[in-house]
Amino acid sequence: MATIVKWQGSGMAFDATASTGHTVRMDAAPEIGGENTGPRPMEMVLMGLGGCTGIDVVMMLQKLKQDIKDVQIEIESERSEDIPKVYTKIHVHFKVFGTDLNEKKVQRAVDLSAEKYCSVSKMLEKTAQMSHDFEIIEV
C-alpha cells in the first residue's frame, strides 16, 4: 500500500492520493498559513477511525441479519497540550438505526470492532484512552 502526499504550491494545502487512486485535500488553519480548503491531518485520523470501525460494525450486523437502516459514528477526542499533540482520549459513540435490532448483537459488533478488528483503533490505543458506546434508534 502506498500514498503520495503533494503540496499544492501555496499555503498549507496538500493533496493525498491513495494507492486506490482516490484523492483528498488536507489543509491547515488560516492562522498558520492555511486556507481552510480541507480537513486538518489530525481530523483525517479521526475520520479514518470512524470509517474503519463503521465498516466493521456494518459488516458484522449484516452478517448477523440485523435490519440496519443507518449507522452514524460520533467521535469526541482530547489531545495533549504538549508537542507532539497526540490524542490522549477518544470516545466513539455509535447510533445504529434499524428495525427490531438485537441489543446484544449490536453490543457484540461494536465491542469486536473496538477490541479486535479495527486497525485504526488498535493503533490509536497506544497513546489514547479509548472508549465506545452505542444507542439503538428504532425506525
Automatic annotation (TrEMBL):
Q: Which InterPro entries match?
A: KH_dom-like_a/b (IPR015946), OsmC/Ohr_fam (IPR003718), OsmC/Ohrsf (IPR036102)
Q: What is this protein called?
A: OsmC family protein
> Record's Pfam families?
OsmC
Organism equals Thiomicrorhabdus heinhorstiae
